Amino acid sequence: MSAYDKQIGGKHYQNFSIQPSKFVIENELLFPEGNVIKYICRHRFKNGKEDLEKAVHFIEMIIERDYPTVPMTEEEEYRNAGITKEEAERKPETWIEGYNKWKALSKKGVVSNKVKLGDLKKLLKKERCPHN
């Protein structure tokens, strides 16, 4: 008597013309593929939906193993980050460059270094709502 002619722990494989384990071995399938075959074959006779979910899980493992996700293009990465390539590649401003910008704006009268804290508080009070 062959090991494939008997089953330990149930009868859910005995109705098949070939046991799933024998099919897996004869076709030299890997472990995850073998489990997919096993769970698909037995779901009606043993654990129902749970066996199908197990088969799906092993299929997901096979897909992950054999068909890895294609990496995003550079353009897709920038789009997902919410910036353009130009923004990402823009060199950060040094403090000297920032100072020089401020100096140029102050010469035009746009900014002033003459405002004192007390004056700033008065200016801010004028901006407030009269009810506050």
Task: Describe this structure as you would to a colleague.
- The chain has 132 residues and is an all-alpha fold.
- It has two domains: 3-66, no CATH class; 74-127, no CATH class.
- Helices cover 56% and strands 0% of the residues.
- It has helices spanning 20-26, 31-42, 49-66, 74-81, 85-89, 95-107, 117-127.
- Helix 1 (20-26) packs antiparallel against helix 2.
- The protein is rod-shaped, with a radius of gyration of 36 Å.
- The termini are far apart.
Q: Radius of gyration in whole Å, from Cα?
A: 36 Å
Mass-distribution shape: rod-shaped
Domains (count): 2
Q: Approximately what portion of the residues adopt beta-strand conformation?
A: under 5%
Helix content: 55-70%
* Number of strand elements: 0
How far apart, in Å, are the first and last alpha carbons? 96 Å
Order of helices and strands: HHHHHHH
Biggest sheet layout: none
Helix-strand category: mainly alpha
Quickly count the helices.
Answer: 7
Low-confidence stretches: none
Averaged pLDDT: 82
How would you concisely characterize the structure shown here?
With about 130 residues, the chain is mostly helical.
List keywords for this structure.
single chain; about 130 residues; mainly alpha; about 0% strand
What's the helix and strand layout?
Blueprint: H1 20-26, H2 31-42, H3 49-66, H4 74-81, H5 85-89, H6 95-107, H7 117-127
Helix pairs in contact: 1-2, 2-3
